[in-house]
Task: structure prediction
Amino acid sequence: MKKLFSLIMVLALLCTVTAFAAAEEPVVLNVFYGTSRPMNDATELTHQYILENLGVDVHLEQGDSSNFNQQLALRMTDADTPDIVWCDYNVWKDYATQGAWADISGYISEEKTPDLMKYVGTDWVFMTVDDEILGVPSELSVPSSHVVFVRKDWLDKLGLDVPVTLDEFTNVMRAFTTQDPDGNGINDTYGLSAAGATYLSFLMGAFGASTERDNFLNDDGTVTTNAISPEYRAALQYLHDIYAEGLIDPELFTMSEQSQAQAKWGRGAMGLWSAWFSHASNAYSRYDFASLQPDAVVEAILPPVGENGMSGNLYSAPFTSVVGISAKSSPEKVEAAIKYLNFQASNYGFRVVMYGVEDEFFDWDPETDTTTWYWGVNDNKSKSGKYEVTDMEVYKMLFHENIQEQTNALTDTPYSRIRVAGSNMRFTEPTREDIFCMYLTDEYVEYHADLDNYFNTNMLAFIMGEKNLDSDWDAYVQEYLNMGGEEERESQLAEYNAAHGTNATFAQ
Amino acid sequence: MKIRRTPGERVFDWFNNIFMLLILVVMLYPFWYVFVGSFSSVGHLIKNGFVLWPDGFHLDAYQQVFRNSLVPTAYVNTLIVTAGGTLISMVLTIMGAYVLSLRQLPGRTGITLFFVFTMLFNGGLVPTYLVVVQLGMIDHLWALILPGAINTYNLILMRNFFQSVPEALYEAASIDGETMLGYVFHILLPLSGAAIATIALFYAVAYWNDYFKSLIYIRSNRLWPMQTVLRQVLQTAQMNTLMYDDSAESVAPETLKDAMIMVTVVPILVVYPFVQKYFVKGVMVGSLKG
Result:
């Protein structure tokens, strides 16, 4: 009896030890997405944090961002597909219809994953295919990312106020172009420059238009298709006029890299710069702007207000990328993936994957919900000085721009000031929502590439005067509708109405 | 005897030299610009655009490159792949080329055409990928070497060179009691120095420059070769000026790019002078006999 009892005790002990060991065994998740963000000793701390606190061992496989879709196609043919894939919304949707993603509806709930439920909100509807939830959207939570920067020192020198209306913007651009604001005696400055025509949206907003093939909901419940609207036509006329007058940099239309615009800004080639919200601060940190333009005072300003009171910068979709979990992953892995994503969706978890571990790379005051981050100070070292602080976002898959907004600059430098001002402006400036941007219908998939190309080519042709708005506009509109524009927008309107229970129609 | 040249010929030579000099400048300046850029301050590049000299001797970009923890391992990986790959490729190419150069090989034309067929048609990316997966080479350096170990163009080039060696040499050697293998090692290969050096250089440069295979077959960045790391740095530089960029890196993307390009290109460039004497002879290899 004694022997039997001892045997049972030993077996029980063994079972406990085995169970304990099994519980301690982390779940390995292979994560695949297109990134060139560096992995180093500093980001390894984040990896270790996730491993120790979530029991998830994230094996990050960095895809090549310019060949990512091709790489993904190969990986999806493989028996060993990645557990987590972060890709564009349209790519995710394509694989979703092929059954590539796991249904996560049984793994998410207010009880189990409160942060994730709060994070995604009502957007689960876009993740649902045949009553299955097949992904987690990377919410941008930011109305816009484009911001207009102005050389305030030039305004002061020319005795001008910060422009508010479109007319004032035009006058400022004219003064910057013709009145030698840099005082070098040479007529070598432009009113406005930017890297690409898409950055002209802030001017088009004054007409209720944009530089994209957006669809806007009007106050009367009708929908306006920007590409063929009178508002868009009026905006094109305005842009053509200021282009013809020489107020905007003609290279604006051919610059393909932001570094080219950064260089022009550094040389003091323009007084207004429409750019990504962080670019003016990057000019200080990386392009030696303080030395190149020592007297410069830069401000982030609101886009102009048009005659009808309209104003807005380019609209950012609620999300453009999605995290999918492979249908081939085991239930244990799906559960671990959801746990990992729920962590990223939380206030604290986001900070860890965004900035690095607390006390080394950031401090957080939960009461004021303010983050103090250690970038750009301490000679780019972490708080203890042990780690190089570079780009720490390699494990981040869920954006949280509103949390990023609650960052607090450590130094009162031009870099920090314009960094915070640019970031704040994204939430302050008005935008006009593209209400069809999440409805990727079959017709959209079929026609959008040709329509995008047609729209962009003609936008440049009208602005630069290769086409005449009076004589060529009607033919342009007809061709746009004939080449699939009509079918595309009708299909999107049908989906929109079905989703919202509305009966919206297109404005005449 | 000195050949008298007409004034027209002299004028032609002058213009020819000027024209060639211009081509030289057009070829050389981008490389010079990258070299200068890697040692310049970003302010100097932005202010002046077209620069001929650096504004000092700034090593920040190089420091940043070598602080990248992937660079040392990537160098080692590239050296392994380049040295090992070139060796394997040369052994296989010489073996294949010699066999194909033998007139007594039955079905020689058919076999050669079989090889040539692969220059025009291949299995495609997905089937090749699946073969590599099935062979268990994913995430191994072998995947960077074996799938492209024989380049048919180089094989044909080498075969043509071997064919140009007089058969009488083999007959004489065999009369003296040399075996076929002995003939290859003692006579044929020593005579083929120029061809071997040239084709080895072709292979080495191809292995050194290849980044696509590692994008497809390598999952761990610890196994990335230099070209993939270079690509990552270039893309990071572009991304940092483009999208969700918040970091306050102090080194400008331009100078960083330039330094990274120099670090990646210079080692293979250094090899050229050593094989140049063979290379000049070797470019004519196999070009006269088909």
